[in-house]
From TrEMBL:
This is Alkyl hydroperoxide reductase. Its main location: other. It comes from Pseudoxanthomonas broegbernensis. One of its GO terms (cellular component) is cell envelope. It is found in: Cell envelope. Pfam families: Redoxin.
Length: 199
């Protein structure tokens, strides 16, 4: 086989992998949600990660929580760091048009309910239109706070470390408002408890 044909096969394989990744993350394809499968999809997604704009420093584990002030569902500005003082936060970035985001919301609601008033506080950060979020929450209600942002190269998700621009994306923040963990991709049933356990 000549070099040109090998190069063409390599490009086709990469395009297929990118298509599978996009289908999985955005369309909810039936690919298995094994950890190895998710790591492979994340590696493919990382090949096309956009570079954050100048002045945007995506958070990494150990960094302080970036300043994020966004409107809540009522339109009033909310300081993310000021939600549930003294409690850890699990910030879940989602959108109503994101299939895997929608699939994991009942799991996030179940976890949030189990935490009560003293455990980890779940916060949703919707990269969506207010109408899209309100319409979705009428069909799939959740009891935890939801903040709204407009998707873009410097949205709150990027500041929280989502440099790949894929959803869903979750961040665990400790009670001192330091980033502890970051996760790209949906939670499998029963996964949140172990992932959100603080060291």
């Amino acid at each position: 086989m000549n070099a040109g044909r090998l190069r063409l096969l390599g490009v086709a394989a990469l395009a297929g992998a990118l298509g599978l990744a996009a289908s999985h993350w955005y369309g909810g394809s039936p690919l298995p949600r094994t950890q190895a499968g998710q790591r492979a999809l994340q590696a493919v997604a990382g090949m096309t990660a956009p570079v954050p704009p100048d002045g945007v420093e995506p958070a990494r584990p150990g960094d302080p929580l970036p300043t994020v002030r966004l409107p809540g569902l009522d339109g009033n500005l909310v300081d993310l760091a000021g939600i549930a003082p003294g409690r850890p936060l699990l910030v879940n970035v989602w959108a109503s048009w994101c299939g895997p985001c929608v699939e994991e919301m009942p799991e996030l609601q179940r976890y949030a309910h189990a935490q009560g008033d003293a455990g980890v506080q779940v916060v949703g950060l919707a990269l969506d239109t207010p109408d899209g979020v309100h319409g979705f929450l009428q069909r799939v209600p959740v009891a935890y706070p939801i903040l709204l942002d407009t998707p873009g190269p410097a949205d709150a998700s990027v500041w929280l470390g989502n440099t790949r621009g894929l959803l869903p994306y979750s961040v665990l923040v400790d009670a001192r408002r330091r980033v502890v963990k970051q996760k790209l991709g949906p939670f499998a049933p029963g996964e949140i408890e172990g992932w959100a356990r603080l060291p």
